[in-house]
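assembly run, all chains below
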Amino acid sequence: MSAPTAAPIYVEAIGIAAPGLPNWAEARATLRGERAYVAAELPPYQPQWLPANERRRAGAAVRLAFRAAEDAMQRSSFAPAELAAVFASSDADTPVIHRICSALAEPARMVSPTDFHNSVHNAAAGYWSIATACTQPSTSLSAWDWSFAAGLLEAYALAADGSDVLLVAYDIPPPEPLLERRPIAGPFAAALVLSPREVPDRIARIAVTLGDGCAGSLAEPALEALRLGNPAGRALPLLRALASASLGGQQETALLPMPGDRVLRVTLDAP
Amino acid sequence: MKPLRINRYTVTSALGRGIDAHWDALRAERSGLSPRPFEDCGLACWTGEVAGLDRALDGELAGWDCRNNRLARLALMQDGFLQGAAELRQRYGASRVGVFIGTSTAGIRQTEYAYAARADANAALAPDFDYRRTHNTYSIADFVRLELGLSGPALAISTACSSSAKVFASAARAIRGGICDAAVVGGVDSLCLTTLYGFNALQLIAADVCRPADAARVGISIGEAGGFALLEAAPGSDPGDLLLLGYGESSDAYHMSTPHPDGLGAAAAMRAALQSAGLAANEVDYVNLHGTGTPVNDLAEDRGVHAVFGEATACSSTKGWTGHTLGAAGIVEAAISLICLQQGFVPRSLNTRELDPQLRGAVQLQSSHRPLRRVLSNSFGFGGSNCSLLLGAAT
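ok done. output:
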């Protein structure tokens, strides 16, 4: 059984940070098939909007989330302080968890205070609100490999309620020994700005339906490996559809995996 | 917003299992906190430990076994909650009931055990350690979804100590947006070394029992708890029906682990809750404070409360009873607020000996019995995440 949700929502800006897809301008060309995907490590990056002292404290997952969010905000007509936020991550900052659990295994159990406040799942949301002076509501969530679709639903519901929303999905490979139990292949972050309004630079109009079925996949093996290698990579079918939608083509559909073998069907029209 | 009906709720904490145990403890002014150490924790502090979590999970979900999911199952078994969830599933269909669960650390205790059991820092983790079904933040939402046989949208919200207040807001939006017709909301957080030693590293743990609003308060006592509620649209309501009237959320945008000193974010969340319910401040009968018992938190919240409510509205923290249950604090204090609405009871600030003269809100030093129609419950977390819930009883 499936049921359609309410009013259409507009995608206003897109950001990405993944191996071989370092920003949306390059990723869009790749996802349109205008250039071949070339696997490459993400070049180093310092978040532009994090004050220097916060930049030193923030963990690797937070910095990755900033990277995609800043990429999206560069092309957005919104100021970040205007946007409610949804941060979706399966595992957040596992290097911090690794350091804390390692410290707790020592006799002295000396947990670093900075590690502790960075260990909260909403660390990225906290740093983002501080960096952008944004006092709007923000939600941080996890839904294992389905975190992107869960985050999109949360952001969609916020937008349907009247808010302009920044959605950021991000995950990084854990350090060993956690990596063996949570094998995330590489970093991946995706960001979308959603609005319930017909904003000037809208890329596509989307509607979502929750139903039964199989998630979409990507024909190119390297891109499919990216999709499966990171929970945030599950965004790729939608990102590919968005890359095409901005050409002004016909309606596209992206199928995103949800818990319990269910699927989030996202339909897109060029505005 | 249109009110949502809370057609069933339950809570399990150091005060006991279910609504009646909590009402008994509130009325008798009996705290659940104890100076007995949690497992081999060597810190001098009080904790609010839930009894009866020693037995491993059995049945189909035995693979989810960890302290956090044991607590979840224990909590789900109280107050006819399983029956209520089954009725909801029947009424709307399993795929139309969403699951929104708050937690801060889920089953991280399993990872702590697995790290401690390693022979050296290069060793792998024990083969029976199951990261996905215990430690991962989503594990608790997955467990609840499977335990209740639901297949609607499911997610874990993890915004530190506001987590299980924010689930009400997310569920309300999802119901309003047609994503689901009804929702199981709740939160579970269980004792672990990460939070005990972590808050200790921040010098926020009291050696003595926590004393919210006290002039000599020094910090928190950590507790553990699980609680749940069923939410659905309420086209009409009968007298006595419990309602979610509104909610408000905000971000401090100030500091990762310290609230804005003037409680600006707290005040913004409280005002947003009033606005979403269409109520004026003087229509709220009692404010259940976040009131953790640290010097900075209680003062900042008081400034926010004073800015919104002035000095007239009765308020108190109930963490002297339960301890700070972190990611479960939102649902625990929502449940206590619902008990207060049903019983006509305003709890005092337990363990408060001498009220901090800097505080200007009407912190209650004596419990009182009087009819309540609307209660506001505050939950604030690290990262500056604020959420206020407005709960009411239909008349």
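Chain A has a mean pLDDT of 94.

The domain at 6-202 of chain A is CATH 3.40.47.10 (Peroxisomal Thiolase; Chain A, domain 1).

not gonna interpret more than that til we talk
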